[in-house]
């Protein structure tokens, strides 16, 4: 199992990109079901990565 260590700025960039894609999908007028489900899945993944990163930081004693 490989460990992926991401910095907070890279997580925020991922979150921002997800938001832009979601807004673009709404603007284009595609059926919203799929983009909403996709965005929710990505948001769950990002939250999981943030919590994992926070736990890793706590274990290491900060930073």
Helix-strand layout with pairing:
Blueprint: H1 8-28, H2 33-60
Helix pairs in contact: 1-2
Brief characterization of the structure:
The chain is an all-alpha fold. The protein has helices at 8-28, 33-60. It has two helices and no strands.
Relevant terms:
mainly alpha, 63 residues, 78% helix, single chain, 0% strand
Notes on the structure:
The protein is mainly alpha-helical and 63 residues long. The chain has one domain. 78% of the residues lie in helices and 0% in strands. It contains two helices and no strands. Helix 1 packs antiparallel against helix 2 (33-60). The longest helix is centred in the C-terminal third of the chain and has 28 residues, at 33-60. It is elongated, with a radius of gyration of 14 Å.
How many separate domains make up the residues? 1
Number of helices: 2
Number of DSSP strand runs: 0
Which structural category do the helix and sheet elements fall into? mainly alpha
Beta-sheet strand percentage? under 5%
Rg, Cα atoms, Å? 14 Å
N-to-C terminal Cα separation, in Å? Answer: 23 Å
Shape: elongated
- DSSP helix fraction: over 70%
Unreliable stretches, pLDDT < 50, 5 or more residues? none
Give the helices and strands as they follow along the chain: HH
Mean pLDDT: 68
Largest sheet: none
